Amino acid sequence: MTGGTLIVTRKISRHQDFVRNFTALGFHNVSVISLDKDALYFKIDELKPSLILMDAMFYTAGTPYMIRVLLKQKQFRNLNITIFAVDEYPADLGMMFIINKAKSYVDINDGENQYEKGLLSVRNGENMFLLRLRKALNYEVIILFLQEY
User: Fold this and answer.
1) pTM, two decimal places
2) Does the pLDDT at position 130 exceed 80?
C-alpha cells in the first residue's frame, strides 16, 4: 500500500462506507483500520501511507495527545495526519490537534459542502482548517505551528 490513504477509526460498521466515500473523492489505495497503540504503529510502518485520516473520536478526548505521541517517534515524524470529525467534537479540543502537529482538521459540522471541500484540499496536499476550528483558534497561531514543520 505504500503511498496510499489509511483511515483510522473505531466506527467498524462504517469501514466500507469510508472506503467507498473517500475513493469517490479521489483518495487512492484507501484502507481502513481500527487498531491502536503498538498495533497501529506496526500497521503504519508496514503500510507506509502517504496520508493518514484519523477519526477525531478515535481515542475520544485523548486523540490529540495520542497524535503527538505517534509523531514523536522517530520513524513517524514526517507523517501527514489529517483529523476528520464525523461526530460532534468541541472546537476547543479540535484546536489541540493542530497544537499536537496534525496537518489538517476537517469537520462535518461545518456543513457537508465545507467538509467535502476540506477533504479535497487535503487530497491535493494542502493544509486545511475548517470554520469552527478557525473561530476557536487564532489563525496566526496556526500559521506559527505550521512553520515549525
Assistant:
1) 0.87
2) no
